[in-house]
C-alpha cells in the first residue's frame, strides 16, 4: 500500500465510531517524565508563627531551606491529534483535561503542557550536572554567611533519575551518595536510565518547552529497601535469587546508598533500571 494512502471513507463513518477511533489513538496514561535539574531551586525562608516547625524566640532555629520543584519547568506533549482536524482536536483536548494537562493557546493552535509532578515525575540529573547538583544546597547556606543557623529541609521531590554513566564514568567518592538523603530525605526512588539522553535540555537552556521525555520503569532490574532487615530485596522483571542482582549498575548504586538508608528510617525506597520511551 502506498505510504501516503488515505482512508477516504473515514468521514462517512458514524460520529460515535470516529470518536472512538480518535480516543483509541490517545495514550491511556502519561508515564513518568524526565525534567532536567535546574540550579536555583533551593531557597532559604524564615519561618513564621503559622509554620509547623516555628520555634518562638529563636530565629536561628526558624529557617527552612525549600526546594521549589515548580522551577524545574514544564514539557510539551507530542499529541498529533491536536493538529489533525477540529473533531480530533476536541477529543484530544478533552483527554488532556482529564490528564491534568495545561492547554495553552499559541497562535491558532493549542499546545499541551505537562508540569512537573513531584509524586510521579523524575528530576533528571546528567553526568555533567551532578557535581553542581550536590553542591547547591550547601552553597545556599554558605552564601547566607551564618553556619550557626539551623535549617529545616523542605523538599517534595520523590524521584530522581540519572544516566548509567554516573556509575560507569566516575567513582563513589565523587558521587557522594553516602550523604544523599541529608537534603533529599523525600526521595523514594532512584531511576538509572539506560540509553542516550543527549537531547535533554541543559540546566541553563533557554528552551522553555522541551518535548516530554518518558521512561519505562517496568522492564528493568529493581531492588527495594527492606527497612526492617536493612537490606535490599530484588523485585525484578527477570528471575533472580534474593542475594543476586544481575545488573552491575543497580548493584553498585544499592551498595553506595545503603549507608544513608541504614542510619535512619527511610521506607519505602527503590532503585530501578529505566529505559527511555520517547
Explain what this protein looks like in three dimensions.
Residues 7-122 form the 2EXR domain. It comes from Cytospora paraplurivora. By secondary structure, this protein is of the alpha/beta class. The strands form 3 sheets. A 6-stranded mixed beta barrel has the order 1-7-9-10-14-11. A 3-stranded mixed sheet has the order 2-3-8, with helices on one face. It is built from 7 helices and 14 strands. The two termini are 27 Å apart. It has one domain (13-73, 116-276). A hairpin with a 2-residue loop joins strand 5 and strand 6 (109-115). The protein is globular, with a radius of gyration of 23 Å. It has helices spanning 15-24, 86-98, 130-143, 165-168, 172-175, 180-183, 248-262, and strands at 33-36, 42-46, 63-67, 74-76, 102-106, 109-115, 122-124, 151-154, 159-163, 189-194, 213-216, 222-226, 231-234, 270-276.
Amino acid at each position: 500500500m502506498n505510504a501516503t494512502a488515505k482512508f477516504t471513507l473515514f468521514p462517512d463513518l458514524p460520529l460515535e465510531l470516529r470518536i472512538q477511533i480518535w480516543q483509541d489513538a490517545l495514550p491511556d496514561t502519561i508515564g513518568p517524565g524526565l525534567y532536567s535539574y535546574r540550579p536555583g531551586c533551593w531557597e532559604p525562608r524564615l519561618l513564621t508563627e503559622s509554620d509547623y516547625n516555628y520555634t518562638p524566640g529563636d530565629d536561628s532555629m526558624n529557617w527552612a531551606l525549600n526546594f521549589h520543584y515548580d522551577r524545574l519547568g514544564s514539557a510539551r506533549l507530542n499529541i498529533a491529534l491536536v493538529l489533525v482536524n477540529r473533531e480530533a482536536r476536541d477529543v484530544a483536548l478533552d483527554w488532556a483535561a482529564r490528564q491534568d494537562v495545561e492547554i495553552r493557546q499559541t497562535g491558532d493552535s493549542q499546545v499541551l503542557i505537562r508540569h512537573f509532578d513531584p509524586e510521579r515525575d523524575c528530576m533528571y540529573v546528567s553526568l555533567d550536572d551532578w557535581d553542581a547538583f550536590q553542591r547547591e544546597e550547601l552553597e545556599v547556606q554558605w552564601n547566607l554567611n551564618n553556619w550557626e543557623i539551623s535549617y529545616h529541609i523542605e523538599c517534595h521531590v520523590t524521584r530522581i533519575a540519572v544516566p548509567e554513566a554516573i556509575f560507569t564514568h566516575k567513582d563513589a567518592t565523587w558521587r557522594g551518595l553516602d550523604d544523599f538523603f541529608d537534603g533529599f530525605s523525600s526521595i523514594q526512588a532512584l531511576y538509572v536510565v539506560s540509553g542516550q539522553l543527549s537531547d535533554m535540555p541543559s540546566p541553563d537552556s533557554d528552551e522553555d518547552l522541551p518535548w516530554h521525555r518518558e521512561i519505562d520503569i517496568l522492564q528493568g532490574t529493581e531492588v527495594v529497601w527492606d527497612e526492617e532487615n536493612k537490606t535490599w530485596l530484588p523485585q525484578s522483571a527477570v528471575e533472580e535469587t534474593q542475594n543476586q542482582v544481575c545488573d552491575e549498575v543497580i548493584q553498585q548504586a544499592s551498595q553506595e546508598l545503603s549507608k544513608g538508608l541504614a542510619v535512619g528510617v527511610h521506607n519505602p525506597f527503590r532503585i530501578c533500571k529505566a529505559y527511555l520511551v520517547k
